[in-house]
Amino acid sequence: MEKEKSNVALSSVVAAVFLTGFKLIIGFITGSLGILSEALHSGLDLIAALITYFSVRVSDKPADKDHHYGHGKIENLSAFLETILLLITCVWIIYEAVSRLISGNVHIEVTIWSYIVVVSSIIIDFTRSRALSRVAKKYNSQALEADALHFSTDIWSSVVVLIGLIAANFGFYYADSIAALAVAMIVIYVSYKLGKKAIDVLLDKAPSSLYEKIETAMKQIKEISQFHDIKIRTSGAYTFVEVNIHVDAGLSIQEAHEISHKAEQEILKIVEKCEIHIHMEPEDV
User: Fold this and answer.
1) Which H/E stretch holds residue 227?
2) Average pLDDT over residues 69-85
3) pLDDT digits over 11-59, tens only?
4) How far is CA 28 from the centre of its chain?
5) From CA 153, how far away is CA 262, in angstroms rounded?
6) CA end-to-end span of the chain, whole Å?
7) CB-count burial class (<10 Å; 0-12, 13-18, 19+) for 201
8) CATH number of the 208-283 domain
């Protein structure tokens, strides 16, 4: 598992290095703010990809005396840091785009390389996004999911920049700065979604839908007379569940254990990568 996650994260680092360098060169040659904003976006994607690469290498380490719940939350911290980087990108893009629109200094040199770099970016971003999404879903990795979101965002922002270049080619140079602003709006929206999810996990917010599913599963086990104090927290790819159940006071230890095991199996049907702690109490007669 760790090797596949590391490999897909490393390939994203390589892709980000190429795209950042390519966009910077063409952006400076043409003076296109749209392409330069994309270069900065890709540059922060590179930093994010590096953070992701190192986080997935650490997150799968087993629990130790200092980290009783494992190291999974480093993935969630990684996703949060990526959000900060994305927002920094937006501040620069918006500032530069507004400055150009106010000053009227919007002329850019559109060349064949302008189109090559943007189209190449779309193709590479699409390929990386699909690969990252596949592995993220396979291993429930929020860090890889965040990286996939970065690359998928790049696809849409590159399309916007491409439209701006086409408009500039017909003399409408304001379109480049407007395209840059549109990129910023896309990035802000994605950053909000990504950041909220990361913060929820870091603050141990229980997923409401998961709580309801576990509650329903406990109600369907007839040997459990009642249950309470369901607690859920996630850490990286793993979910930790605690629940108190009441069983017949006359049952043997073995019979009570079998009921506990049955409850665990029902929860594992809902959450595959899950560590479960069930506390049993005798039902008052």
Assistant:
1) strand 226-235
2) 78
3) 888 888 888 888 888 888 877 766 777 787 777 778 778 877 777 777 7
4) 31
5) 43
6) 49
7) buried
8) 3.30.70.1350
Query: Token digits for 103?
Result: 């000053």
Enclosing H/E stretch for 228: strand 226-235
Written as six digits, the tokens of 272 are: 């595959």
149-153, 231-235, 258-262: the lowest-pLDDT one:
149-153
pLDDT tens-digit readout, 175-227: 777 777 877 787 788 778 778 888 888 888 877 778 888 888 888 888 888 88
Does the reported pTM lie above 0.90?
no
Structural domain boundaries of the chain? 2-202, 208-283
Query: In CATH terms, is domain 2-202 a member of 3.40.50.720?
Result: no
The residues that bridge with 238 in the sheet, in sequence order, are: 235
CA-to-CA dists, residue 221 to 51, 197, 260, 264, 268, angstroms? 44, 32, 10, 11, 14
**Contact yes or no for 263/275 (Cβ under 8 A):** no
